[in-house]
Amino acid sequence: MAQNGPRIVSFAEVEAVIASLPPDVVIDAMAAGFASFSRGEVSVPSPQTLGQPPLANFVGHPSAQACIKSAYQHGGEVFVTKVASGGDGLNSGIVLVFSQRTYQPRAILLDDGLLTELRTAAAGALAARLFAPLNVKMIGVVGVGVQARWQLRLLETVTPCRRVRAWARSITKARAFAEEMRARGWAVEAVSDVEAACSSADLLLTVTSAREPLVRAEWLTGRPVLVTAIGADAPGKQELEPSLVAAADLLVADSRAQCLERGELQHAIAAGLVTSESVVEIGECVISRCERRGLVVFDSTGVAIQDVKIAELAMGTLSSSSRL
């Protein structure tokens, strides 16, 4: 144990750090992390998912899960382990930061999942920066939980579009989401039909815990559109029809290997509709720009290098303010 033990960073301190971070800085950090990952400069063990099949469910809500992810950048200063848990609209989490030099814990970030929400949304914003049509006129949102709110917050720096059609299984929740986001300057229409959220979208965000496809290929094919699929982050989860994934003119994964196991790709591969060779990683597109064309599907499962990068930003902010 380090002489003084790890610094315990409270939730309030994490909130203050997040409020001080310019969105573009966070998005750029994700871009750098993904590029390092695709260059093979990062070690990322396979994630662990608890509370979901093939393991037993937790005693709480059937959608609840805990995900444990770890990573470190070769030659970096820290290694990070993150536990993010949640279900039924409730989220929690903790980020553990260790020194690569002394192997001792440097900080325990009691973030309640906020850093995960931010880095996930930043990946979505990066995808929009790289792949969204140049003139986005409508954004579709499928699922209106916490991450949907974060996705729109980070998109504010990427696209001037503020028109949104949002769907949820509960129209009451969709209307509450619309009202909340209107206060941030978004023109959000709550819709009762998922097709209505998809059919006019130039940029579609899917942020649910679905285990059966919600979004059909026929609603999106034949025009330029970016689909950022966030909900499928564990074996068995699925938001998109496999035929929609197969129809993509550009199929992008945050991690090719991870998406084959736990993203939308798991279903398209199992159906024999795509091969791993047809997939490019977003880090590869950061390194060497991919052509922005047609239907783009970004399969976002959450890679632990994102947790390293957001932890580094948090630690740097705390150090500069003499709070670490």
From TrEMBL:
Top-level taxon: Eukaryota
InterPro entries hit by this protein: NAD(P)-bd_dom_sf (IPR036291), ODC_Mu_crystall (IPR003462), ODC_N (IPR023401)
Pfam family, one: OCD_Mu_crystall
Annotated GO CC locations: cytoplasm
Stated family: Belongs to the ornithine cyclodeaminase/mu-crystallin family.
Protein name: Ornithine cyclodeaminase family protein
Origin species: Noctiluca scintillans (Sea sparkle)
Organism ancestry: Eukaryota, Sar, Alveolata, Dinophyceae, Noctilucales
